[in-house]
Amino acid sequence: MKVERHIYTRAAKTLYSAGEGYGTVYKTDGLEDAFVKERLHPYCAYPVSLQNNNLTAVTLVNFPCGRMLLGQGRFDAIGERGAFFVHNFVLPAEKAAAVAEDISILPLVDFESDVHADALPLIAREVDSVPLDAEWLSVLAKSITASVYSAKKTYVILPDDDIDFVWNVLRQVYPLLDIEVRQVLGFTTYACQPVNKEGLHLIFITANGAKNPKLSQEFVLSLRAQQVGRSVCFSDVPLKKFLSYINLLHVRLPKSKDYLHLLETKWLDANLDKLSMLQISAIPDELINRGKQNKECTMHVVLGILKFIIKSKNFSHYNLYVLSDKTKQRIKTNIKRLFGVI
């Protein structure tokens, strides 16, 4: 499957509108209209501050279907007026998987700024690799991972709007991420305000943009300060968001059973004592059954028993003889906490 192209800018007439304004002016033959309108257009946003400093914003988004959006937005003078110009590549699943395996081969190009320009070949962009603090990179990797499976986004403050800094960070943090996380991760290299778009987990933001009060509940890292705005806590992930992430991974990565069992077990281990009776009832049986297939996943067994007890209303005389003493004690503790009896 080939790499497809899509161009979005201001014109007197666009593909989907006969009126003057911003819209799609070119797309590769075969690139579905529904995919352009529903998947690509939401990321063709006008970058307000790009006009003043001639910066570009590169965005990467992984879609559940396996395809990857790799696009650049910039402000360009066309005729007597300025226009926002977006050039997107849509990578097929196999090329997207290669990018997730090794970020250094990310196909960056001198993105087009002219509708009539010839297609440019994909080339590798060489970026000077300046070693970053290992502890800071570790915190960033944990933040990114937490953002992928939670509602929080990770923001990294751009030092002096240095775009090369972005690629330096990406090339050094990608190897620290699980491959399963990389195959879902989406990022944008420049933003002047918080970005609330699905599929974007890592956002490089200007120092002024980082002052926005909306970021008080997000993960915010500053390279110079070497600090994170909020502690990265696995147990902070809400049940609903975690389950939706797990389901997405099962759709995208059906063969990654060991990783998923590990992730599920870690989350359950961190959150079981905090789950209410209603939340335990909401955990899908298939998640518990998947865990039971792995002998290491004792938390799935605990949850399975708790769900059975909740349904049966028989709290006092449940036979626990088949389990280890440690697991029995954990079950008893949770039953007592939930129901006040044992």
Could you explain how this protein is built, in words?
With 342 residues, this protein is an alpha+beta fold. It has 3 domains: 1-126; 127-232, Rossmann fold (3-Layer(aba) Sandwich); 249-339, no CATH class. The chain contains 12 helices and 12 strands. It has helices at residues 33-40, 50-53, 93-101, 134-148, 163-173, 179-182, 239-252, 257-271, 277-282, 285-292, 298-312, 325-339, and strands at 4-11, 21-27, 56-62, 68-78, 81-91, 107-108, 123-124, 154-157, 187-191, 202-205, 219-222, 227-228. Strands 2-1-5-4-3-9-10-8-11-12 form a 10-stranded mixed beta sheet. A two-stranded antiparallel ribbon has the order 6-7. A hairpin with a 4-residue loop joins strand 11 (219-222) and strand 12 (227-228). The chain is elongated and about 70 Å long. The termini are far apart. Mean pLDDT is 75; it is low at 114-127 and 226-231.
